[in-house]
């Protein structure tokens, strides 16, 4: 049967279009200013043709002085427009400056420094651009440049534009050699049907493979499935062999592979297969199949360096081992390089693998941050004020990374034993640094006392941040009392709340002992003047004036006594309910919103509590939106204390009490009388800013407890426990713009069953407004059972914020998101993509578990 041209083929991109659309335009969009140097004047017309309403092109061909003046004016106009989409391209018909000295004499070098320049690297040379644009004609391209160092665009375009492979081009509807090969390996449904309906393309396919790869197809079965299978095996093994820095093992030496001349084409085809979302699952299946058929994992198991391309899944494990070895050698640069490659790896989409790499990334980030902080610490040890400045500006980030690292460790079901030494190293590095900082903190505590002079004490928060707003008639204030909101969590929360109005984060200093009954009482009206501690039998009781404030009921009664009918209190979990507005009268001007779930979960079940911290932060964000819609103008978020975590406590983390008569609070603080020793500080209550019936306060000098086995603790004196956030949010009353983004969630080409407890989903974000300037969007993703319970959430790391649980995705792109499913749940569930502010559903998938036994 004769073939006709009834199938549409697309024309290959011309080299001029490729350079404009794939090289110059992306750089111009990213950097706003681009200086194009072109001594051969090859790109002159191309650059001039790029001029438009949004792109100003300044051509220096006619003279450098007027051109520079025009470029400076265009640059000034660009700077006046915040968020402008305008761009500036400066065309310079000379060689680019090769040194700093050259830049000093080049009138246009400043534009390349402000933005970007072209050519920037050897990869920007014309011959390299042509090789990238026409990878499947690399041999012909090199031949042309060997004969003519400055070929025309037309000559380059003519390469590979002949009418070769007419049957293949007609059946597959593609043009270039690379596209034909990719289509043979991973055809679309329509292409598959046409391949099966025809057979005259087979001889062309055999010849194309022989001519381009230098190998003969051995199969005697002349049908697509057999040819495809052999082509996959040849291509994958060829890429592996080309990338291998050492000789192939003897068992693989005689396996057919492509000729050396085909190296670039092999690389190009394999990269296309790996990087095309619709083909990626097929690539993963075929690579795993070929690896098993050829027994590569066993045969190559002894090879340490497998190159940089992870053609097969066993190579990813080799790179993982190399990365861990680099951590052990303290070679952070090599580890970072391997991590960067792993992020782009096709195998990073496997849930278990992704989580293990995430832990490695957390380890490296923590070790790096500890190193940076340790180098900076000597500059801030001279006084208490300097140390506190160091904490709220730098060291809190170390605590954040430590918490995220521990979260990542506990989130994985089956920890690779190879990871344990690196995990132990990260914990050791953090605890050593934290202990150094703690030693300095206690030294200044003994000399300067507490709270720090001239700084915001938690006892002042209500009177300074809440009460003044309530003195204005009709002003409605929401006062959030969140138990155990550590400073670094407050920093992350403040970032998340930026879209709700004008936010302000301020460091405050909690009362020591840093325990809930005292800390929460310190946040009440009048606490600065009236808070004291009384002895009531065996108990330490916070007092405000002559009132005992033993519990939450007493605390709420105290506020009601001050504000009467203007006051109401509720739990955070109530505010996020859709009908909450019906329960609050318009006359309520002070609404206290309480939550103790973070502290409660951490004290009862550390491993469960650590990852669940994000829920309260998510609820606060939703609650603020609810309250704003109800007419509240101000929200103040405060906390009683922070906390410390030590997931692997040992004998050295337990401290004996000093001699004396003491009342123990939360295993970290003592009230009474006694004597300091090498392990404990003992200070007068007055020195610690405490009024009442106790003369002295004491606690461990280190990050230790008076009882063994505490993974989570507070109550004592440390930066982590006593420095807390106070966030105020002036809630915007402006109507919110409609969202201009569409989110779509997909799973394994439409599969409706998951076979792993770590399924990987694809989240894409498509703009519905072409003029939107917002680059990133946040969503929540939850797996929800039919009864409404959450049975799966994104694992932290990568696009997932470990503090808030939100997933960030760039407009016009997609992200792989691993969902960690509940170990106990099996059955049907729905994966929902939610707006983190309103909890409205963007997209959802109906799925069911089908775990392999």
Please, could you describe this protein's structure?
This protein is α+β, with helices and mostly antiparallel strands. It has five domains: 15-129; 164-303, no CATH class; 315-448, no CATH class; 458-731; 741-849, Immunoglobulins (Immunoglobulin-like), CATH 2.60.40.10. Helix content is 42%, strand content 19%. The chain is built from 30 helices and 28 strands. The strands form six sheets. Strands 20, 21, 22, 23, 24, 25, 26, 27 and 28 form a nine-stranded mixed beta sheet that branches. It is elongated.
Helices and strands in order:
Blueprint: H1 15-31, E1 33-37, H2 44-49, E2 55-59, H3 64-80, E3 87-92, H4 100-105, H5 109-114, E4 116-118, H6 126-133, H7 138-147, H8 153-158, H9 166-172, H10 177-185, H11 189-197, H12 202-213, H13 224-243, H14 263-275, H15 280-294, H16 296-299, H17 313-328, H18 332-343, H19 351-376, H20 384-411, H21 420-448, H22 461-470, E5 477-482, H23 487-496, E6 501-509, H24 516-521, H25 527-530, E7 531-536, E8 539-544, E9 547-548, H26 552-563, E10 567-571, H27 572-575, E11 590-595, H28 597-604, H29 606-629, E12 634-639, E13 644-645, E14 660-665, E15 669-674, E16 680-684, E17 696-700, E18 712-713, H30 719-722, E19 723-731, E20 741-746, E21 753-754, E22 760-767, E23 776-784, E24 790-794, E25 807-810, E26 814-821, E27 828-834, E28 841-849
Parallel strand pairs: 1-3, 1-4, 2-3, 5-11, 5-12, 10-11, 21-28
Antiparallel strand pairs: 6-19, 7-8, 8-9, 12-19, 13-18, 14-15, 15-17, 16-17, 20-22, 22-26, 23-24, 23-25, 23-27, 24-26, 27-28
Helix pairs in contact: 6-7, 10-14, 13-14, 17-18, 18-19, 19-20, 19-21, 20-21, 28-29
């Amino acid at each position: 049967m004769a073939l006709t041209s009834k199938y549409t083929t697309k024309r290959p991109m011309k080299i001029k279009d490729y350079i404009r659309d794939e090289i110059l335009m992306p750089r111009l969009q990213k950097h706003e200013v681009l200086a194009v140097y072109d001594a051969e004047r090859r790109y002159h017309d191309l650059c001039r043709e790029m001029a438009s309403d949004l792109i100003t092109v300044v051509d220096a061909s006619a003279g450098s002085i007027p051109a520079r003046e025009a470029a400076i004016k265009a640059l000034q106009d660009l700077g006046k427009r915040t968020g402008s989409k305008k761009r500036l391209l400066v065309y310079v018909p000379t060689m680019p400056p090769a040194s700093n000295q050259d830049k000093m004499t080049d009138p246009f070098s400043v534009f390349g420094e402000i933005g970007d320049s072209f050519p920037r690297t050897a990869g920007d040379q014309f011959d390299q651009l042509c090789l990238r644009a026409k990878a499947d004609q690399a041999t012909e391209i090199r031949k042309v440049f060997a004969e003519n160092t400055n070929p025309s665009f037309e000559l380059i375009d003519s390469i590979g534009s002949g009418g070769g492979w007419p049957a293949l081009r007609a059946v597959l509807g593609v043009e270039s050699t690379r596209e034909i090969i990719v289509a043979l390996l991973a055809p679309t449904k329509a292409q598959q049907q046409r391949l099966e309906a025809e057979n005259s393309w087979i001889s062309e396919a055999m010849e194309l493979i022989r001519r381009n790869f230098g190998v003969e197809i051995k199969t005697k079965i002349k049908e697509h499935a057999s040819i495809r299978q052999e082509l996959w095996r040849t291509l994958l093994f060829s890429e592996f062999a080309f990338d291998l820095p050492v000789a192939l093992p003897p068992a693989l030496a005689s396996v057919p592979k492509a000729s050396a001349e085909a190296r670039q084409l092999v690389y190009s085809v394999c990269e296309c297969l790996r990087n095309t979302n619709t083909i990626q699952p097929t690539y993963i299946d075929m690579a795993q199949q070929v690896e098993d058929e050829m027994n590569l994992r066993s045969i190559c198991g002894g090879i340490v360096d497998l190159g940089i391309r992870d053609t097969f899944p066993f190579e990813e494990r080799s790179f993982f081992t190399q990365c861990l070895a680099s951590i052990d050698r303290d070679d952070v640069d090599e580890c970072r390089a391997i991590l960067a490659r792993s992020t782009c790896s096709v195998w990073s989409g496997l849930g278990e693998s992704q989580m293990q790499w995430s832990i490695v990334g957390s380890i490296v980030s923590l070790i790096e941050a500890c190193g940076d902080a340790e180098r900076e610490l000597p500059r801030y040890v001279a006084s208490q004020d300097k140390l506190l400045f160091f904490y709220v500006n730098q060291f809190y980030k170390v605590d954040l990374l430590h918490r995220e690292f521990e979260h990542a460790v506990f989130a994985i079901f089956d920890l690779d034993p190879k990871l344990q030494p690196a995990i132990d190293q990260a914990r050791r590095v953090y605890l050593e640094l934290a202990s150094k900082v703690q030693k300095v903190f206690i030294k200044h505590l003994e000399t300067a006392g507490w709270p720090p002079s001239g700084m915001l004490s938690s006892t002042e928060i209500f009177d300074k941040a809440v009460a003044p707003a309530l003195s204005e008639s009709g002003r409605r204030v929401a006062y959030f009392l969140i138990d155990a909101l550590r400073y670094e969590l407050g920093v992350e929360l403040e970032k998340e709340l930026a879209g709700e109005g004008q936010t302000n984060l301020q460091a405050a200093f909690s009362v020591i002992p840093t325990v809930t009954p005292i800390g929460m009482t310190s946040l009440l009206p009048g606490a600065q003047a009236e808070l004291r501690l009384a002895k009531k039998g065996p108990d330490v009781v916070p007092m405000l004036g002559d009132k005992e404030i033993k519990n939450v009921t007493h605390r709420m009664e105290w506020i009601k006594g001050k504000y009467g009918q203007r006051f109401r209190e509720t739990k955070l979990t109530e505010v996020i309910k859709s009908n909450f507005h019906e329960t609050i009268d318009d006359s309520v001007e002070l609404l206290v919103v309480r939550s103790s779930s973070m502290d409660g979960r951490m004290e009862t079940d550390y491993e469960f509590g650590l990852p669940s911290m994000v829920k309260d932060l998510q609820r606060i964000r939703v609650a603020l939106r609810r309250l704003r819609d109800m007419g509240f103008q101000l929200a103040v978020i405060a906390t009683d204390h922070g906390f410390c975590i030590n997931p692997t406590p040992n004998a050295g983390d337990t401290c004996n009490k000093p001699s004396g008569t003491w009342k123990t609070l939360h295993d970290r603080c003592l009230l009474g009388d006694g004597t300091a020793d090498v392990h404990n500080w003992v200070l007068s209550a007055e020195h610690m800013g405490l009024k009442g019936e106790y003369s002295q306060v004491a606690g461990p000098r280190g990050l230790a407890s008076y009882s063994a086995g505490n993974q989570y603790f507070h109550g004592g004196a440390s930066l982590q426990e006593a420095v807390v956030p106070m966030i105020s949010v002036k809630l915007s009353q402006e109507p919110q713009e409609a969202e201009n983004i569409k989110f779509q969630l997909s799973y394994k080409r439409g599969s409706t069953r998951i076979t792993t407890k770590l399924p990987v989903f694809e989240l894409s974000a498509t703009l519905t407004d072409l003029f939107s300037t917002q680059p990133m969007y946040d969503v929540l993703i939850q797996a929800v059972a039919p009864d409404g319970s959450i049975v799966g959430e994104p694992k932290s790391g990568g696009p997932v914020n470990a503090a808030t649980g939100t997933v960030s995705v760039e407009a016009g792109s997609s992200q792989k998101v691993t969902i960690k499913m509940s170990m106990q749940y099996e059955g049907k569930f729905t994966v929902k993509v939610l707006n983190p502010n309103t909890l409205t559903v963007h997209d959802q998938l109906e799925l069911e578990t089908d775990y392999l036994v």
